[in-house]
Amino acid sequence: MSHDLYLAQSHAFQLSRDLMVPVTVFAVDGEYGVLPSDEIDAGDDLEIVHEFFPWAAH
Q: What's the rounded Cα separation, in Å, for the pair 33 and 4?
């Protein structure tokens, strides 16, 4: 988890490109985390910030 959104987004983008899977940046209690999108369940209490797709141009 990180308090720096820019750092979390940077890691998420790179992780998405490395793994070639969608990756989600989420917020919980003022901190940001990154997970592959398929590991997030609908019932999780997360605020979704952004989702990165490896095949989309950024």
A: 10
